[in-house]
Amino acid sequence: MAAYAGQPAPPRRRGRTPMIAALIVVLVLAVVAGTGYYLLGQDDEPNPTVVSAPTQDPPAPTAASDDSTASPTANSSTDPRFVQQGQCVRNEASAGSKPKLLITDCAPSTYEVLRRVDGTTSGEKDAEAKCARVDGYTNWYFYDSELDSLDFVLCLKRRD
């Protein structure tokens, strides 16, 4: 038997190369478009640095009483960071908790600021040494910030 001369040739099979190339092009375009969208959505100016009160709570040292120290509050009119010599502070914290000083009118059971010493404070011994030179002090308080220029010591006298 003779072979049929008109037998069709099998269809040419295309490789996967064109499909893979097309997929790669689409992915690259998607990445470029996404990156461009992200970059165009950003501000040209950097975000400003926000400076806030130190987050580290000051230690609670005292010479005679557990309630004479505190951490700053948000209200600047009562914030102990702004107290001056001659003003008074009170402790709003409950017994056994971190002290919370607030500037207040001078009255019994408040603490009068006999001296305020601004500047770098190295800790309890430094605060006690600074107040040792103040006649009549009964308690001391120091605030130690990450920024040494914000440190201060209060030499206090409890008002009965």
Outline the structure in words:
This protein has 160 residues and is α+β, with helices and mostly antiparallel strands. The chain has a domain at 80-158. It contains 2 helices and 5 strands, in the order H-E-E-E-H-E-E. The chain has helices at 17-41, 124-132; strands spanning 88-91, 101-104, 111-118, 139-143, 152-158. A 5-stranded antiparallel beta sheet has the order 2-1-3-5-4, covered by helices on one side. A hairpin with an 8-residue loop joins strand 4 (139-143) and strand 5. The longest helix has 25 residues, at 17-41. It is rod-shaped. The termini are far apart. The model is unreliable at 43-75 (pLDDT under 50).
Rg (C-alpha, Å): 36 Å
Helical stretch tally: 2
Order of helices and strands: HEEEHEE
Main-sheet strand order equals 2-1-3-5-4
Question: Could you say which overall geometry the principal axes of the C-alpha atoms support?
Answer: rod-shaped
Average pLDDT, all residues:
74
Largest sheet: 5 strands, antiparallel
In short:
The chain has two helices and five strands, in the order αβββαββ. It has a domain at 80-158.
Itemize the secondary structure elements and their pairings.
Elements: H1 17-41, E1 88-91, E2 101-104, E3 111-118, H2 124-132, E4 139-143, E5 152-158
Antiparallel strand pairs: 1-2, 1-3, 3-5, 4-5
